[in-house]
């Protein structure tokens, strides 16, 4: 699958990022809608991946404190390198602005995925919205 990424502020990415997150988190994973939205989106950089038809298939955000979050890829884009491209783009943005590390709260089932990109578990498993999560960290060399 061919796709391209954009990285921009919330004003530019809001419509497509929200649509992907709603489909993946609220509809597919049944996370309560009130837990999905917070007041941090407007302060973050957002990556959105689009397929060849211009349809948004994935998203993620980089918070001002170096956290990467809200990583989501629609089912049709999974296993195609979309999540990896989003993660690497957000990591590059963090490195470029001078962050010494990036941290994320991964769903436990995604630990191996993040591990492939240099993230290590930091702490014990915990539950958020009824889903097992772990904190993971990547320190830039």
Automatic annotation (TrEMBL):
Pfam families per the UniProt record, alphabetical: Acetyltransf_10 (PF13673)
Gene3D superfamilies (alphabetical): 3.40.630.30
UniProt cross-references to CDD domains, sorted A to Z: NAT_SF
GO molecular function: acyltransferase activity, transferring groups other than amino-acyl groups
Sequence ranges assigned to domain N-acetyltransferase in this UniProt record: 5-141
InterPro entries: Acyl_CoA_acyltransferase, Bact_Acetyltransf, GNAT_dom
Record keyword Acyltransferase present: yes
Domain of life: Bacteria
Keyword annotations of the record: Acyltransferase, Transferase
Keyword Acyltransferase in annotation: yes
Protein name: Acetyltransferase family protein
